[in-house]
Amino acid sequence: MASQPAGYSKTQIALHWIIAVLLIPQFLFNDAIGEAFRTALRGTSTTFDPVVFSHVAIGFLIGLLVLLRLVIRLRRGAPKPPEQEHPLLKIAASVTHWAFYALLVLLPVSGAVAWFGLNHDAGEVHEVLKTILLVLVILHVVGALFHQFYLKTDLITRMKKASA
Predict the structure, then answer these.
(1) Which residues contact 134 (CB under 8 A, 6 or more apart)?
(2) What would the mean pLDDT of 44-50 be, rounded to a whole number?
């Protein structure tokens, strides 16, 4: 694994925000694919729906971008947590970040297995993982705001300003 740089690279920051933005429609417009999936499982034919197509395409894109981000992180590293941070917060941050990577890889895989294989069990796994991801996103945002406004570590600037 790489050493720990002072901050994230421009590519790491861009990937973070692109993936974050791409997750929004995945959460907001997932009813259409759920309905199309249930219809397909019943053996009823469905018509083309651009929202369903978008969900599949964006999920695939997120999976690819997360793999790219993971490769960059493994090669370049990530900045250390603030020195004064409590050890439990450091552990929580590490677990949260690696859980994000796992979920953001497993969600497109489980979704593809469910959709293309008409696999009900994979669909159920996908739904559970989606809920866990939503909780993790909320935890991540609350944690960033906690650092910024309560601990005053200015941690948020690491995802806005690139280092060399």
Answers:
(1) 27
(2) 90
